[in-house]
Amino acid sequence: MQVTPSVRPANPVGYFEIPVVDMDRAIRFYSAVFGFDFERETIDGYEMALLPLHEAATGATGALAKGDVYVPSRTGVIVYFSVADIDATLARAVAAGGAVLYPKKAIGPAGFVAEIEDSEGNRIALNSRSA
Q1: What is the fold, at CATH topology level, of the domain defined by 15-128?
Q2: What is the four-CA torsion angle of 19, 22, 113, 58, rounded to 10 degrees?
């Protein structure tokens, strides 16, 4: 099967949803760790908290999502958040009730990575281009 390239180059992921059990707790966690402001909506009967969307920016956006089809997990797809300082982000995550699952590690030219468990039990990864 041959795939026809799109007219405009784009990153392949455009949107993601992170399962949550307690929306208020999850919003507090992600706001404390990353400084996000959320827009709350109900979409197709599911409670959502939309992450910021900047139309002209590259990369993907997503939402925290609550409902019967959303089950937090440490297994499955891992979402990577770009951060300026992994050490500071790890500290904020722990202070907000999360846990460090994979400590900061250098990965060559791509910078550094680490993984945390969020307030809902999801594995979330961090990436920084600088120490």
Answers
A1: 2,3-Dihydroxybiphenyl 1,2-Dioxygenase; domain 1 (3.10.180)
A2: 60
